[in-house]
Specification:
- The protein is α/β, with parallel strands linked by helices.
- It has a single domain (9-117), classed as 2,3-Dihydroxybiphenyl 1,2-Dioxygenase, domain 1.
- 25% of the residues lie in helices and 34% in strands.
- Strands 1-4-3-2 form a four-stranded mixed beta sheet, with helices on one face. The chain has a four-stranded mixed beta sheet with strand order 5-8-7-6, with helices on one face.
- β6 (93-95) and β7 form a beta hairpin.
Length: 122
Amino acid sequence: MATVEIKAFLPAKDYELSQRFYVDLGFTIPWASEDLAYLCAGKCSFLLSKFYRKEFAENLMMHLLVEDVDAWWQQADTRQLSAKYGVNVGLPENRPWGIRDFTVNDPAGVLWRIGQEIKAAE
């Protein structure tokens, strides 16, 4: 049995604000309705839903592997995501398990780890 893809449905406390946040972070929105949006970055995508439960949103984590994590962090910093959306944006760090990443919370509280593969510490 072959698979094609898997997508997460992410909650949005403020649907329009979350769409703007994700565009500023680096995603595009090829399609949206009044309660669901399809967001893409390269070959990666997810669905943003006009649905919110605090307990769900604040316990959800997404992991996005990219080719250049520092470019993604620079985008977040240049677009002033922290000040503009009231979210936490961490600094990129090299992790001992072979990932350089940073964290960012979306406006609903979903935690993202955006990173790239590096050589693992030995």
